[in-house]
Inverse folding.
C-alpha cells in the first residue's frame, strides 16, 4: 500500500425485508476513476428499505435502530435493521423547508450519549439527538437576498420507545440555500458539536454572481450580533452543546467564533478516528475532490486553490468581480470564462493553507478538454468531469470486515461508488482510493452495524449519475431512496 505521507498533522489544542440476493465482489470496477484489484472480501447485497425521500444522514443509533434524516421528506425516520420497517420519528413538514431539486431540507443528524460531565443527578443525563434543517425567514440576507436559514435543534431520545421530545433550538440563523449545504454533523470526544457549512454554491451556476465567502472570516461585531449567515459559509464549526462558542475555539483573524477551519467548498464528509483525528471530504469543482485532516485555525484553500497549489486545470475565476461588464449582464459558463471576469492562478495566491492528504479526480493537466462528448447532450458536462462528488466519509474502526480496520469509507454521488482509503499507521495519510462497490445510484451516507460486518448505504431518490456501462449522464437510479445492506460473507 502506498501512502501519501504528510507532515501537517500538527499537535492540536483539541483532542481531538426485501432481500435482493446478489453476491458482489468487494472490488467491482466502474466506468471511470481509480481501478482496484479484483480481490478482497465478498459481500452479500440486499435492499433493506425503500421509499425514503432523499435520505441524507444514516446512523446506527444507541437504541440498536438505524436512523435517517430525509432531506426532501422533511422528517427523521427510524429503520428496523432486521425487517427494514420504517417509522417516522419526527415530522418537520411544518418547520423545515426543501426546495424542489435543491440541496436544502432536513440534513444533519447526530447522537450524543449520556456523559458523566453533565446531568445533575450523576446519571450522565439524557441521550440527545441533534438535527439540522433549513427553514424560511422573511429577512433577506445582505448582498444575496437569500431568505433561507438553517438551525440545529436538540431533542431528547427515549431509547425504550424510540421517540424524540423536548426540542431545544441550539443555533439558528446559519447559512442555507439551494446549493452546497454540506451539513454533516458529528459529536467529538470533547462533547462538542462539529458541523460543516458549504459555500452555498456561490460563484457557480444559479448563484454565479454571489461572491464566494469561504475565505471571509467573522468580525467581532458579527459574532456579538449572531450574524452567522455571511461569515459562516464554507467553514467547519465547533459548537458547545448549548449553541455557544467554546472558549477554547481558535482565534482566527483576531476573532473567536464557532469557526475552527475555513476555505471549504462542500464538506459533505466528516468523521473522527478513535484517536480524535478529524477527517473531512470536500467536493472539487471540476477536479480535485479532497480528503483533509482538520486541525483548528487552518485554511484549506478554497476558492484560491483546489487540491495542491500546482496550477493544474484550475484558476479562481471570480464572477462577482466582473468589470467593466457587471456580473448580472453575463451568462454563466462552467468552462468558458468571459474576459471581464478576473482570474487568479493558484500560484498567484500566497496565502497559507493546508493541502489535502488525498484527492480524487485529479489527474488532468491544464488544457484538458472538460467537454466530454458523452455528456454533450443537454450540456451535462459536469457529470463527466473527473471528480466523483464525495458525499460522506466514515471512519471504519471495527474488525468486521477483514483488512478494513482503520479505513475511510467514502460515498460518491455522480460516480455511484463507495471507495475505501486505508489510513496509514500514523493516521496522517491514506492509501490510493479503492473502489469497492459501484452501481447506478447516488450513494449518500453510510452506517455500520455494531460488529462492522454490515455496511448500510443510503441512496438519493433522484438526480443524475454516470451510466454504469457508458459513463453518460443518466437519471435512472437502480435503488432510489433506499437503504442497501452489504454484509460480509464469513
Ligand atoms: Ca483544499
Ligand atoms: Ca491544484
Amino acid at each position: 500500500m502506498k501512502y501519501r505521507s504528510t507532515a501537517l498533522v500538527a499537535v492540536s489544542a483539541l483532542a481531538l425485508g426485501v432481500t435482493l440476493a446478489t453476491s458482489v465482489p468487494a472490488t467491482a470496477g466502474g466506468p471511470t476513476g481509480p481501478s482496484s484489484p479484483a480481490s478482497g472480501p465478498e459481500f452479500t447485497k440486499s435492499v433493506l428499505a425503500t421509499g425514503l425521500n432523499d435520505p441524507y444522514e444514516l446512523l446506527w443509533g444507541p437504541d440498536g435502530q438505524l436512523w435517517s434524516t430525509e432531506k426532501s421528506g422533511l422528517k427523521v425516520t427510524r429503520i428496523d435493521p432486521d425487517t427494514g420497517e420504517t417509522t417516522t420519528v419526527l415530522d418537520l413538514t411544518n418547520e423545515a423547508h426543501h426546495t424542489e431539486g435543491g440541496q436544502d431540507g432536513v440534513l444533519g443528524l447526530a447522537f450524543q450519549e449520556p456523559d458523566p460531565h453533565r446531568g445533575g443527578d450523576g446519571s450522565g443525563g439524557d441521550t440527545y439527538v441533534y438535527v439540522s434543517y433549513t427553514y424560511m425567514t422573511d429577512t433577506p440576507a445582505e448582498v444575496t437576498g437569500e431568505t433561507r436559514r438553517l438551525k440545529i435543534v436538540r431533542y431528547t431520545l427515549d431509547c425504550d420507545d424510540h421517540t424524540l421530545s423536548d426540542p431545544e433550538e441550539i443555533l439558528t440563523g446559519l447559512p442555507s440555500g439551494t446549493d452546497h449545504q454540506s451539513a454533516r454533523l458529528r459529536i467529538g470526544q470533547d462533547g462538542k458539536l462539529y458541523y460543516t457549512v458549504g459555500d452555498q454554491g456561490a460563484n457557480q451556476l444559479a448563484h454565479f454572481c454571489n461572491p464566494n465567502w469561504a475565505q471571509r472570516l467573522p468580525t467581532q461585531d458579527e459574532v456579538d450580533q449572531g450574524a452567522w449567515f455571511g461569515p459562516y459559509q464554507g467553514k467547519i464549526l465547533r459548537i458547545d452543546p448549548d449553541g455557544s462558542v467554546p472558549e477554547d475555539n481558535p482565534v482566527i483573524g483576531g476573532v473567536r467564533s464557532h469557526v475552527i477551519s475555513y476555505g471549504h467548498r462542500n464538506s459533505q464528509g466528516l468523521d473522527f478516528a478513535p484517536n480524535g483525528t478529524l477527517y473531512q471530504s470536500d467536493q472539487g469543482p471540476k477536479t480535485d475532490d479532497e480528503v483533509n485532516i482538520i486541525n483548528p485555525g487552518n485554511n484549506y484553500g478554497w476558492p484560491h486553490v483546489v487540491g495542491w497549489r500546482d496550477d493544474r486545470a484550475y484558476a479562481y475565476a471570480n464572477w462577482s468581480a466582473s468589470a467593466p461588464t457587471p456580473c448580472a449582464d453575463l451568462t454563466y459558463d462552467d468552462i468558458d470564462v468571459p474576459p471581464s471576469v478576473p482570474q487568479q492562478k493558484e500560484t498567484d495566491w500566497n496565502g497559507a493553507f493546508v493541502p489535502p492528504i488525498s484527492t480524487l479526480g485529479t489527474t488532468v493537466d491544464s488544457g484538458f478538454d472538460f467537454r466530454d462528448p458523452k455528456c454533450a447532450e443537454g450540456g451535462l458536462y459536469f457529470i463527466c468531469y473527473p471528480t466523483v462528488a464525495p458525499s460522506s466519509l466514515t471512519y471504519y474502526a471495527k474488525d468486521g470486515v477483514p483488512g478494513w480496520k482503520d479505513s475511510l469509507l467514502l460515498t460518491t454521488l455522480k460516480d455511484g461508488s463507495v471507495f475505501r482509503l486505508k489510513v496509514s499507521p500514523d493516521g496522517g495519510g491514506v492509501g490510493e482510493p479503492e473502489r469497492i462497490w459501484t452501481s447506478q445510484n447516488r450513494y449518500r451516507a453510510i452506517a455500520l452495524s455494531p460488529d462492522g460486518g454490515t455496511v448500510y448505504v443510503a441512496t438519493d431518490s433522484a438526480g443524475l449519475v454516470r451510466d454504469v456501462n457508458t459513463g453518460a449522464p443518466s437519471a435512472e437510479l437502480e435503488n432510489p431512496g433506499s437503504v442497501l445492506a452489504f454484509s460480509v460473507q464469513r
Remarks:
- Helices lie at 220-225, 381-384.
- The chain has one domain: 18-488.
